Amino acid sequence: MSQKKEARPPIILRRRTKHDDLPDEIVLEILARLPVKSLLRFRCVCKTWYSYITNPNFISTHLLCYNNHDGGYVIYMPRTSVHRAYFHRPHSQICTLAFDRTFETISEFRIPFTFQSGYASLVGSCNGILCFTDFITPKSNDVYLWNPSIRKFKRLPNTCLNQTQVLNVAHGFGYDSLNNDYKVARFSWTGIKWIPPPEVEVYSLSSDSWKRIELGISWRPNVLAHYFNYTLTFPFVSGHLHWMIEIIEEGDGQGWRLTSMILSFDVNSEKFKELPLPDDEGSCITKCLTSFKEKLALIKFERSVQPHSMLLCSIWVMRECGVFDSWNKLCVVPVESSLNFIGFTKYCLILVRKRSQLVSTNSKLESKDKIFLIDPETLHEKEISYIGNHIDNRLDIAAYMENLALLDGENLVSY
After folding, report:
1. Which of 48, 62, 148, 303 shows a CA-CA span of 20 to 30 A to 12?
2. Proportion of the chain above pLDDT 90, given as a percent
């Protein structure tokens, strides 16, 4: 038996006019607060939206608007040792994205390019762009910029200097806020003594080229050797790149002494200057530079007077960039050994490994390590979940955020 269809209400169509569209300013405000994944899809909506999203000014605005209220993210990868690079087969390296304050894993990214040595070295992270170089091949010209959030990377052009005599290199990566440009600084020298001084080059993403610049700093004549402190990635703070440089000097008589200095590079003006370390008594075993809440920080490991071979990890913070008197000792954290130190997050939460007592596993006694996050201001410790084989090595850790940079340009590779 046929059933009579219910009558549907009439559909009233109204012709759209230009006055129904949102103003361009409102559309841009909405788009600037959307995640990168959505914006990549919305490029296909119309030509107007495509031009909006790929515009450099919009990319800068999105970086400020979308990442202004997030809780903070870090990206990390296991740090390759010289022993592993020389005596083990290369492997595909993985970067892990995690929440900054909890270190809970969000996702993993496989590095989409390879180096001659087979091992990538993280130079730094800036606004979500990662910079990598070859870990163990100084003469290699391979430098990559990679934006995982848009799945694109770029190999930088070869440097303008002759690399045949180069024995050592060091890099830094930062953002020129005045010109909305990303820059890579590269040192190259032929021996342990900087005579002649190291050659310095700066790469500009906007021009896609390298240029030579002068170091502009005179070294003391009694210096026997210089070398960079590679304990952590070189921090980019307040528009400046910073390198810790260890100096071996001739002392009084026939002896020698080890001193340190900070080399600061203004990414905007492309000028160098020397920064002194804070005055501090005590026997320092090792030290390194990092950042603490977007300020330059110095980490020092010293021997403790307490038993059980404990070390004291002291954290100094430069409250005002470039001002020596603004150095302030923030806190002192006891650690079992400098070897148990893994790294720091953006907010300077300290990742340390603590050895537990022997436990029985399948009729075997094993010692399992635990990983803790330590807040340097409250000294509160929080055990975090096991992070795979990464605890066997120190980690290269850098701040991370979503960004549309590298969306368009020359010599970009999508994957």
Report:
1. 48
2. 34
pLDDT-derived band of residue 172, with 50, 70 and 90 as boundaries? very high
Which of 165, 170, 219, 159 has its CA nearest to residue 190? Answer: 165
Domain residues for the domain of 304 are 279-384
| Residue at a domain's end among 64, 95, 116 | 64
Q: Where is average pLDDT lowest: 30-39, 262-271, 296-305, 354-363?
A: 354-363
- Between residues 139 and 182, the one the model is more confident about: 182
Point out the domain boundary residue: 36, 64, 92: 64
What total number of domains does the chain contain?
Answer: 2
* Percent of the chain's residues with pLDDT above 70: 78
Quick: pLDDT tens for 47-63.
999 999 999 899 989 98
Q: Residue 86 pLDDT more than 80?
A: no
Residue 4 lies in a domain: no
At residue 237, does pLDDT exceed 70? Answer: yes
pLDDT tens for each residue of 192-214: 666 667 889 999 999 999 999 99
Is-contact 244 228, C-beta < 8 A?
yes
* Domain contains 201: no
Residue 370 falls inside a structural domain: yes
